[in-house]
Amino acid sequence: MRNIFKLILLIFAGYLGWIFISASLDKIVDPHQFLKSINNYEITPYWINSLAALVLPWVELICGFLLVAGLFLYFKNGSDLIDIPNNLIILMLIWFIFILSVAVYRGLDIDCGCGISENKTTPLERLIEDIYLLMFSIIIKFRQRIIKSFT
Fold this sequence. Notes:
Layout (H helix, E strand, L loop, with lengths): L1 H28 L1 H10 L5 H32 L5 H24 L16 H19 L1 H7 L2
């Protein structure tokens, strides 16, 4: 059972890292378009949106890479390098879930700005996916306790 959980952990962390890496690339290439997407939410001031459009994609990219790299180190020698990027991902996902919830509540018909799909993604679709990603990230965070429960 322990090995099955480790395989699930590998899948969750790999998928989460890949999602954050792939979501960051379009935003890094075109921060102005990402800024427009952030402004559509009408939650934060323009100067914060500008800063987020420049910094957030790089944080997503670095966290995605560190999560994948930390995953390999975790399985190789039990390193906990995976915790730092995972904690940042949890914080980002909580923020994303909040702003997407506000957008759904307001009935905004906007593109989420996540950069993953060429098709328009509605806030509700993205909200559901972010909740799943947050669950994956929480499982990764508490992996040691879950593994200990199998012994």
